[in-house]
Amino acid sequence: MIRKVFTAAIISGLFLASCNGESKKDSKETTATETTVKEEIVADSIINEDGSKLGMAFNNSKNTATVLLNGEEIELEGQKAASGIWYKNDHYELRGKGRDLELTKDDKVVFKHKDDVVESTVIDKTGKKLQMSFNNTLNKATFLLDGETIHLKGDTTGSGIQYSNKNYVYTEHQGNMELKKDGKIVFEIKK
């Protein structure tokens, strides 16, 4: 009798464990499917200098874009662009490269955005060259020094400017420039 109860308990336990395994497996498959769907669409929005906002959703698997401007939802089909993006329908056309975008309706510009970017190249007293690109819209900077590209984010300062990342800190104040890597000066211009 004890043997029959014990056997029944083991069989029941295996059955329940088996059901639990299938439930977890189904759950994993559902999660993977949901993740894939979310990864197909890239959403962004951008505000132009007039304060107008353009919402955008790009479905990369279908090569389509949906833009939202002034409450109007516009569906566009992807086109082959030499560089950047190009989407259009019978009336609208969205073209751009990076964050610089232009939306036209029947060949008239209805939305335009261009980041405020300042580029400069400076040379220190030893002849070392530092190429700098400041994106004031995003409060980011990109430098090129000795073949290395350095991406920095703007910091709040009391005076002057400062950009930094994990390893680098760039400061500029009253015409003096300094770029440090891990606390050591790697580029400097003093007035």
From TrEMBL:
Pfam families: MliC. Keywords: Lipoprotein, Membrane, Palmitate, Signal. InterPro entries: MliC (IPR018660), MliC_sf (IPR036328). This is MliC family protein. It comes from the Bacteria. Gene3D superfamilies: 2.40.128.200. PROSITE patterns: PROKAR_LIPOPROTEIN. Residues 50-108 form the C-type lysozyme inhibitor domain.
